[in-house]
Design a protein that fits this description.
The protein has about 280 residues and is of the alpha/beta class. It contains 10 helices and 9 strands. The two termini are about 30 Å apart. The chain binds fe (ii) ion. Fe (ii) ion (FE2) binds next to loops. Fe (ii) ion binds next to loops.
């Protein structure tokens, strides 16, 4: 059950980051398969990234290699399922305590519904209920018709890292109508820490504190420039918004994605304001 802002957890933040214990985070957006996209090139690199996820206190991860866009024609669903099976076997033999599930980071495309029906693109955790959608970075596309079409198939869109999109970060009101059509927002853990610049950092905190974003994920690709940063993000969210919110967006809602359950939005953050009214402050 969701905690309210008055729950004692909110006021129980440790004074220092060192006081946080390792939580069991669930990462719904990660490029941990090797040889399929701009994530790890080799098995050794993939296992290193998976060790990094475990060190970052992640216990379950959805592998979301890029699908469509520049990867159109490759990384189809069957191939990703097979790669996930192989990686899970390799994790077991390497004693790395991480469970990987199939998914995709799907570039928006008018063919998506058809490709879902013909089993070419993947939903998150291969459960059929949520799909991770990536917008092109350089242009803005209003994807409301796609969100509606997906919804008619019983699939809810999860918009990946809107805080890093130059148009969405500066004009977030457009996201309101997508949210009203059953979409959800996933922000990147490293954005909250400023690792994608000030614009993304401000937008990420606005989306979280206004209750518009209900999921945080790593979108990690490697241990160098695109590291998993879940633990640090959890600590920062706990300090700024309370541990109940941090658990909601880093653990509980990601787990609901795995279990194919309804997501809980965090519109309780601003007392008395529904998500439709809590427009982020940079709008
Ligand atoms: Fe991604």
């Amino acid at each position: 059950m969701m905690c309210s802002v008055n729950n004692k957890l909110v006021g129980a933040e440790p004074p220092q980051a060192e006081g946080f214990s390792c939580q069991q985070y669930v990462d719904i957006h990660c490029h941990c398969l090797y040889g399929v996209d701009d994530g790890p090139a080799t098995k050794a690199e993939a296992l290193a990234l998976c060790r990094g996820l475990v060190d970052d206190c992640v216990s379950e991860v959805v592998a979301t290699p890029h699908q469509l866009g520049r990867f159109s024609g490759c990384n189809e669903a069957a191939q990703i399922r097979e790669a996930v099976f192989t990686l899970n076997e390799e994790l077991k033999s390497s004693d790395i305590p991480l469970t990987v599930r199939p998914g995709g980071d799907v570039r928006v495309d008018e063919r998506i519904c058809h490709l879902l029906e013909t089993d070419k693109v993947l939903t998150l955790a291969d459960g059929g209920r949520y799909i991770l959608l990536e917008l092109p970075h350089e242009v803005f596309i209003d994807i409301e018709p796609l969100i509606v079409e997906l919804s008619s198939l019983g699939v809810q869109a999860v918009i990946s890292h809107p805080e890093r999109h130059p148009v969405l970060a500066k004009q977030p009101k457009v996201l309101g109508k997508w949210l009203a059509q059953s979409a959800h927002l996933q922000i990147t853990s490293a954005s909250l820490l400023g690792e994608f610049g000030l614009m993304a950092q401000r937008a990420a905190w606005d989306f979280l504190s206004s209750g518009w974003a209900c999921l945080v994920a790593t979108d990690s690709h490697n241990l160098d420039t695109r590291r998993p940063r879940m633990k640090a993000a959890f600590q920062r969210i706990s300090i700024k918004l309370g541990q109940a919110v941090a658990r909601q967006v880093c653990i509980e809602n990601p787990l609901r994605i795995i279990k194919q359950e309804n997501l809980q939005t965090a519109h309780f953050i601003k007392k008395g304001k529904h998500i439709d009214e809590a427009v982020p402050t940079n709008s």
